[in-house]
Amino acid sequence: MDPKIVAIGGGHGLGRVLSALKDYGSNVTGIVTTTDNGGSTGRIRQQQGGIAWGDTRNCINQLVTEPTVSSKMFEYRFKERGELEGHNLGNLMLSALDDLSVRPLKAIEYITNLLSIDVNIIPMSEKTTNLAAITKSGQTVNGEINIDSNEEPLDKLYIDPLVPATQEAAQAIRHANIIIFGPGSFLTSVMPPLLLKEISKSIAQNKDAVLIFIQNLAPEHSPADSMPFEEKIAWCERACGGRNINIVLGNIPFKAASHTQFIQKQLASEEQCWRHDKEKLRETLNDIMNKRKCYRHAS
User: Fold this and answer.
1) Is the peptide bond before 183 cis (omega within 30 degrees of 0)?
2) Distance between CA atoms of residues 60 and 69, nearest Å
3) What is the CATH number assigned to the segment(s) 5-295?
C-alpha cells in the first residue's frame, strides 16, 4: 500500500516537492501557506480581501503534466500597462470563485479537476489572516514582505488574527505516514501553517509519521539567513508541539540532535543550482519511504 504523504510550505518549494511525488496521486496532500501579501496576490488582497492565492497557484502550475489551453490560461500573466499589469490570471480565477461564495477548497478542487491534477492541494486556512513577527528588540513587524525584508533577528512569529486551520488539512496530517517540511522560505513559507493550533496539534498527535525537513539549496534573503540551522529545527519542533524531526535531507551538515538523522544528498538541478532536481528528489524520497520504518523514532 502506498504511503500517505503530506507536504507543508509555500509555492516554489512545495510545488517542487509535490511535482516530485505526483506519481502517488491522491495519496499526496500539499498544505499551502496563505499569508502572502506581495505581488499580484497582495494587490488582490488589498482591494477585496480573501486568502493569498499565489502559493496555491504556483503549486498547481508545477503539477501540470501536459500544457493545454486551460493550463496556459491559468498561468497567464498580464503584461500590458494598466490595472491588470502584473496580475496572474490564475490568481484572478481563484479569487473570482471565492467572490462567488465558492469555498476556497472547492475552488481549488474545481481548478485541479479542470487541469487533471490528482494531488490534493489544501489551503492552510480558508480565513483571511496575515503573518506577523516580534523582533529581538521587541518591535512588531506586520506582513510577509516586511518580515522578509527586516534586518533585525526575530524572536517570534504569529498569525494575526489567529484563524482555524482547514479541517481537511488537519485530517490529512492525522492520517499521514510521511510529513515533509520545506524547502522554501523558512519564516514565510514553512512556518505559517505550523502556527495554526489544529495543524500543530495534529502533527504532535501523529506519533507514527516520519517527519522530514528538506534544506534549501541557496541562502535566503531574509532574517532566516542569519539563523543557525539548528535554531530553525528547534523553531519547527516547538511549533509542532515538541514533535521531533526524524530526518533532515540536504547537503549542509549541522549539529543534529540524537533523534534526527541527517541524509546528505546533492539534489540541485544542473540547470538551476538553487532549485531541487525533481528526479533526484523523487528517488531520494522514494528510498526514504520504502525504509520509513527504519527512521521512525519515539517522540
Assistant:
1) yes
2) 15
3) 3.40.50.10680
Tens digit of pLDDT for each residue in 38-69? 888 888 898 888 999 999 999 999 999 888 88
Per domain, the residue ranges of the chain are 5-295
Can you count the helices (H) and strands (E) in the chain?
A: 13, 10
Residues of the chain with pLDDT under 50: 297-299
Cβ-count burial 131-140 (b if 16+ within 10 Å, e if not): bbbebeeeee
Task: State residue 15 phi and psi, 5-degree precision.
Answer: -60, -35
Quote the DSSP letter at residue 100. Answer: T
Q: Judge contact between 222 and 149, C-beta under 8 A.
A: yes
pLDDT at residue 298, as a whole number: 41
Angle at CA of residue 144, ends 257 and 240, nearest 5° = 30
CA distance 89 to 92: 5
Bridge partner list, 5: 28, 178
Residues 142-151 have pLDDT tens digits of 999 999 999 8
Rg of the chain (C-alpha set): 18
Residue 295 pLDDT: 66
